[in-house]
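The instructor's notes for this session suggest beginning with a concrete chain rather than abstract definitions. Hand out the sequence below and ask the class to guess, before any prediction is shown, which regions might be ordered.
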Amino acid sequence: MHHDLPSAPSFGDALPFAAAPQVLDFLALRRSTSAATLAAPAPSEAQLADLLRLAARVPDHGKLTPWRFLILDGGGKADLVQRLEQLAGRKGEPQLAAKLAKLRIPPMAVVVISSPRPGASIPEWEQVLSSGAVCTSLLYAALAMGFGANWITDWYSYDAEACEILGVKDGERVAGVMLLGTPREAPLERERPALPPLVTRWTA
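After discussion, reveal the predicted structure:
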């Protein structure tokens, strides 16, 4: 799983521009990994730093970085799950506690928090889309690094009390909870959309 990334380029550096057929092959077979199959080891600190660096290289109109990362692992993640279980109990909705299994099982999660910049000239919608691009890049980078990864949201992504526990601030929203670990089994292909009904060509 270890791979040394190229050094981070400096502002204004000329970057290589060439076809990357291996990336096309990866995308053609890419598949998210079931949360229930994710086990230790999770990415190391160095690998996580690489993943976040790659995730941050996304389209970002206005260079606003309208997103941030929250790392959940070890005892901290276990404590968070326990607090969310207690919250589900206070709500009297046991199905909410059951849904926490997806967060409990994997050894690591990275919460991508959409944090639009108020008053910016860039529309908020574009800022939110950038946070979705971060989620996608993080998912793909983790899979390309050899880890299993799954992008989820669940009730705690939208519940006001749960978001307060997570430290989500006013004006922020959870864009995705990225579950990371080592898959214990290969994922199976799922049904994919038929493209012809989804594709049109504009004509005057």
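Then share the key points. DSSP finds eight helices and five strands in the chain. The mean pLDDT is 96.
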